[in-house]
Amino acid sequence: MSKKRIFAEEHPEYLKYWDFEKNTLDPYKIGPMCNEKAYWKCEHGHRFERIVFNMSRGNTTCPECKKRSTMVISKPGIMKFWDKEKNTLDPEITPARSNEYAWFKCPKCGYSWRTQICGRLRTDKCPACETNNVIRKGVNDFRTVSPQLALDTSDELNPDIDLNKLGIGSKTRIHWKCHICGFEWDAPIHGRAHRYNGNNGIAACPACAKVRRKDGYDVDYPELVPLYSPNNPIPLNEVRGVKAKFLWICPKHGEYGQKLGHMIRALKNGTIGCPYCNGFKVRREDSAGAKAPELIKEWASSNESTLYEYAPNSKYLATWCCPDCGTKWKAPIYVRVQGYGKCPTCYGNKTFKERYPELEKFYGKDNTLPYEDAIVSDYTPRNWICEKGHEFTASFYKIHDQGFRCPYCENKKALKGYNDFEHLYPVLAQDYDEEKNGNKASEVVVSYRNVYFKCKNGHSFVRPIIRHVELNGQCPICSGTVLKKGSNDLATIYPAVILFWDYEKNEKRPDQVLATLDNSYHFVCSNGHHFKCTLRELVENDFHCPVCEGKRVDPEKTSLQALNPELASEFSVNNKSTASQIAFDTSKKVLWTCPTCGYTYKASVRDRVTSGDLCPACAGKKAHAGFNTLLDLYPEIQDEWAENENALLGIFPDEILPTSNARVWWECKDCGRKYLLSVNMWVEKHIRGMTSCTYCNGLRMRETHVLL
Question: What is this structure's pTM?
Fold first, then answer.
């Protein structure tokens, strides 16, 4: 016969809880599996009833002690910020998991806020000075944290943005103005601030760092404006960087692609950036192979490409192979096209006359050296007359090396009455400023060299002669490309704009900017409404205020930021617009960031204004990790959560609410068995101190196959 089990013998450690005064049961006579209730007393003197069997299983928790341990007074993390002056709740009887709102105050920075008590269980840090969830002026705003950044921006530069509500890590793009060089640009705050070894570093002004330009290329190189193709993705004034390739327009060859840096170098060198005009690229019908097909048989196979890929004036030093003797030699393509640079073996022992008998008719009769005595290596300048009758000088070697080339026919030198600017374009030559240039229009050729011009209206400007011809003498000031006060400025062209001009926000006066319709400016109407729009929009609206007509939002008067700044503080930075750019009564749905839990949700501005707090996480409708999920409120769940089985169901404790009725798998920490039970049922049993395991409770369960 087996020995009778005695509670006192099997669990002597629990006798200290036995209430010998009130109990009628004898612990030395009952067994550990006894289902009768007994009286117990904790170490603090609290009496409570509990079934002996449950006590035997280790459930020694005192209900009163447990209740007190859940009060606010027992939570140091909550009491640290508990505002005793504002709160009317008693922390000794208020549950820490209460959904009631209470006031909290940071002892370090003095920030005061109101939030749900249960929300403070997940953190013991100040949302302002420690977690930066709330930005407070003078505490953790980016200008306080980094005074160096404050030098480059101001509220006046960002009238639509409250800089005091932006932290050092904000992704909001604001307007900057370098306090050193005055360069202005837009960039997010976090892009200028970076952390290194725990310290905040500051990215320098892009202009000072030589990363960005202060002025656009259209200002520094106005000659590029008419060449810039309208088919480019961005206008020339927005281009930054010379390495990018853009489309340009050549009056002779049409549209072509070229890097901006190449175009600038071409302007500085007095040439053109068109690769076809410069001979870097050529069409097959204009190539050297098409112009001189007799050279194809002498073209060596060792050359990089065919003769059809080079222009007739190309200076590429190509390899040639004589079809008669097999000799290989090098000579520029343009020299061969002109009939020079022939095979040195076949023509090496010949005099200049024997090599080039066809040039004797161009040899000047006033030369002292007979033509038949000339040698190739003669460097003495000789007189020549081209077939058009132009007289010029060139040595025998130069002609042999570069070909018979008349400088007047090739437009290298000006010959009055033949190729000079005044002769070719007498009307356009009237704009040539002879006083500033130091010569006459009849003494220069039409080239890419920059010269001074002066239009009929007295405007002085600089551009290459060939560009002046291509633009038909159009003055950049008269055409609105270059500003001239009293002629093409905004105030002169549109006098009505003076009544709307915002002299505080615009850096320049209306008489200091061009009357460009697509440029945006700041305006203010007679009612004090501030708005920003393009000049075209204002002109097409007959100079009427769009804010007065309800078409636009005034950041200072009709915006959400202006009329409800408290609600605007919850406006998410992930919105495409800011609280200063959206109307306070619009039905448009936007993103909001809850100041209590940090959850981002979507709701219309009108609903927020009329209904107040609509955060679904605070209302217990949405799970928000780190705030109200099953794992956040009941971290002890990890001991019983069947991770593998629930992962197959796609359910995770940090993604569901404690009120969820989803049936999930649990693993009993006592018997080790797994069972199905809804989340809310488990939570209810857990709060009551009851065992949720169906096996330990004596309930049968149908065998279920679990895929592990």
Answer: 0.36
